[in-house]
Design brief:
single chain, alpha/beta, Nucleotidyltransferase, domain 5, 5-stranded mixed β-sheet, 8 helices, 14 strands, globular
Length: 286
């Protein structure tokens, strides 16, 4: 249903919408006046405490609004969202945010009429499907390999909606040790394991990571059977797509061919693109 309370009689959105993407390392914000485009995103480090982060987020949103009425704030955050409570249920990389009343706090601090909170990987997937590497494909699976690992599935440019969002990064890929995909290739876990920044790890490490990531990609293909798998996030700068494709092809026995496997074209702002696409569906479409 179209959200008529947010539209003028001619169907144009009242006021403006603020878009955001908050992860364990960075926060991104942009403004959209027509829900067709958005301003150059503001990108800052995510403060370590929830209290500092939510105040800084509200300040940035206020600066973007320039004193004008905010129709809605739409964006994603890293972790499993309890939609009914408007809180973060679980997030290994944003523990300080768990259980906090994020929606109510943003409404109170910004005066926005409505705040819509989604999983950040959900919106990144939607952004890639609508405007990025997945554009033109009917079924798009997305994985982000960054501080942590997340992902989602988009069919016909529509996000697969679930109770808490999907968490493919927490699939167990080693039954003996209980290791999850995120524990194997997530940036924070790699830094703990090797004692250095992921970008400083050598080629041998990343060659092995490509093979282990391929296990997760294979599982995602079996689960969602997409036309394309889009891989995003900072870790993909050093992980070989060709190695992943070779390893997935070696394992494939169920489907006639392996889907395309490619890298994000929207980079670190795919979540902003996804927030825009999600807002369009909420406020402008029947």
């Amino acid at each position: 249903m179209k959200q008529k309370n947010f539209l003028q009689s001619n169907g144009i959105l009242k006021g403006m919408v603020i878009l955001f993407d908050i992860g364990g390392s960075r926060m991104r914000f942009a403004r959209s006046d027509t829900l067709q485009t958005f301003t150059e995103p503001i990108i800052v480090d995510t403060p370590p405490t929830y209290e500092d982060a939510i105040v800084e987020a509200a300040q940035i949103i206020g600066n973007l609004a320039k004193g004008e009425s905010i129709t809605a704030i739409v964006g994603g955050i890293a972790g499993a969202i309890d939609v009914q409570k408007g809180t973060l249920h679980a997030s290994p990389n944003m523990r300080a945010w768990i259980g906090k009343t994020i929606i109510k706090d943003l409404e109170r601090l910004t005066g926005a009429k409505r705040v819509v909170l989604k999983n950040d990987a959900d919106l990144a997937a939607l952004g890639e499907a609508v405007a990025g590497a997945g554009k033109g494909y009917q079924y798009v699976a997305y994985l982000t390999i960054s501080t942590g690992v997340g992902g989602a599935f988009v069919a016909n440019q529509t996000l697969l909606e679930t109770r808490y969002g999907t968490e493919p990064g927490h699939q167990i890929i080693n039954e003996q040790t209980g290791e999850t995909l995120e524990e194997v290739v997530g940036g924070r876990q790699l830094e703990k394991k090797y004692g250095k920044k992921p970008k400083d790890l050598g080629k041998a490490v990343y060659d092995e990571l490509a093979k282990r990531l391929a296990v997760g990609v294979h599982n995602i293909i079996q689960l969602w059977s997409p036309d394309v798998v889009v891989l995003g996030g900072s870790q993909m700068r050093d992980i070989s797509i060709s190695t992943i494709h070779q390893e997935v092809t070696r394992r494939n026995v169920m489907f006639p061919y392996v889907p395309d496997i490619t890298v994000s074209t929207l980079g670190s702002i795919n979540g902003i693109h996804g927030a825009l696409a999600y807002a369009q569906k909420l406020f402008l479409e029947e």
